[in-house]
Design a protein that fits this description.
2 domains, alpha/beta, Rossmann fold, DNA polymerase, domain 1, 229 residues, binds magnesium ion, six-stranded parallel β-sheet, 49% helix
């Protein structure tokens, strides 16, 4: 095995986070009395994206994202709605919805026992813990690093240092970070000094930086990457 420690991102890599988010957003809109979630979603996405970018830059704690996105949303549309209740409905919706992408379990089953598998996810603790429990992700991953619990988020190398501590050492030359995000997963792996595998199902153009070791368009290509010499 070329790589013996595999560090996985969760959202949009293993998990259909888009479906999860759509269902959660519908629940949050219901709380606000809005019956047509589609017309509001793109603006919500803009707000959410900007806040997560601030988290990646280390300017905002993940926990702040939870309610702030709905405060900004309520302000923007001048709604008479409680952003905290919306945030609660949204978090429950995120935790309770969204499946692993087809084929993911098969790949993880093949890798289990052959490599140390770790989850490294930027997310709110409550949401990610609900998903871990519902999808029984602790079958595969230990430790599970959730940025909202560690006060540090990818691409900050300190989240990988926490993982290394939990594992009692992490040989960098045989470790691989797998994820869909160039700004958090690929940059995070690069910052920590390990190889990276970019899951790029939509064939996005490869950025000039960070340097990316492997690129895969279908998830099961990971098996070849991990085993290759
Ligand atoms: Mg992701």
């Amino acid at each position: 095995m070329r790589y013996s420690t595999l560090l996985f991102d969760l959202d949009h890599t293993l998990l259909d986070s888009f479906a999860s988010e759509q269902a959660a957003f519908r629940a949050a809109m219901e709380v606000a009395g809005l019956s047509d979630p589609h017309s509001y979603f793109s603006h919500y996405e803009r707000i959410n994206h900007a806040l997560w970018a601030a988290v990646e830059r280390g300017e905002m704690h993940v926990d702040e994202v939870r309610v702030t996105r709905f405060e900004q949303f309520v302000d923007y549309f001048h709604l008479d709605a409680d952003p905290v209740a919306m945030a609660d409905a949204f978090v429950n919706g995120l935790g309770n919805n969204g499946e692993l992408f087809p084929g993911v379990v098969e790949v993880l089953d093949k890798l289990r026992g052959r490599a140390t598998m770790v989850l490294v996810t930027n997310g709110v603790s409550q949401v990610q813990r609900m998903r871990v429990a519902r999808l029984r992700l602790d079958r595969y991953f230990s430790p599970i690093a959730i940025s909202g619990e560690l006060d540090v988020a990818k691409p900050d190398p300190r989240i990988y240092e926490w993982v290394a501590e939990q594992l009692g050492g992490l040989p960098k030359e045989s470790a691989l970070m797998i994820g869909d995000s160039t700004s958090s997963d690929m940059q995070g792996g690069f910052n920590y000094g390990i190889d990276t595998a970019w899951y790029n199902p939509f064939h996005k153009p490869r950025p000039a930086s960070p340097e990316i070791t492997h690129e895969l368009h279908v998830f099961d290509a990971l098996l070849n990457i991990v085993a290759s010499e």
